[in-house]
Amino acid sequence: MTAVIALYPVASAPAGSATGAATEWTQLANNAQLIDLLKSSGLQVDNQLTQITQLAEQIQNQLKIYENMLQNTAQLPDHIWGQVESDLNRLRSIVDQGQSISFSMGNADDVLQQRFKSYSDLKTNLPNAESFSSTYQSWSDTNRDTIGSTLKAASLTADQFDTEEGTMSSLRSMSESADGQMKALQVGHQIAAQQVSQMQKLRGLISQQMTMMGTWLQTEQTDKDLAQARREKFFNADVFTIPSGQKMEPRW
Questions:
Q1: C-alpha distances in angstroms, 52 versus 26, 56, 59, 186, 199?
Q2: pLDDT for 168-205, tens place per residue?
């Protein structure tokens, strides 16, 4: 019932955006550009996840209102059900965006490990020595499984909601009875609540990744500054003249 389920990572968003940067990471041949994009994307992703979480909360509350309305009437009128469909489709989009963000940030972790040995060697406090890439995949799998279980409990399948067209078709069918409408609202409410929790977890994971990256970048810059200081000290050292008695001169 709920337009809720794009269970697959979406890597087709515009390159450079928080959700579409996955392809951008691999296209950047210049490492300096890669680092700059990663740094700017950190704040962008955090802001986006905040907005997504707030939207999921709004949809969760709105679906509860619809449930209360349905309890007091035989069936929601068409114009109200149209609003329900719109909210559930937005919820489906939220799931898409979360999956896309996790895919993109996991991809960034892979690219950094490939290009920078110092990043690959950096010790983190992730469990079982996992990489951020594998941790994002675990989050994605858990999110999909949770949604799938919720749908299954309502005798629904994820396949019905893989696309917007499939979602709308299922919702139109469910709108034909009060029981179907209530089932759709209840499943949507549960998934909205799950997404609030899952987006908070994803935001925490990305925050941890950004902190680790900041530590790595600071260490890299410190090493560069130290090397530069040593070069300057070497080339700017005072040059002392050698006393004539100590000079080596050819004797013919």
A1: 26, 6, 11, 20, 8
A2: 777 777 888 888 899 889 999 999 999 999 999 999 99
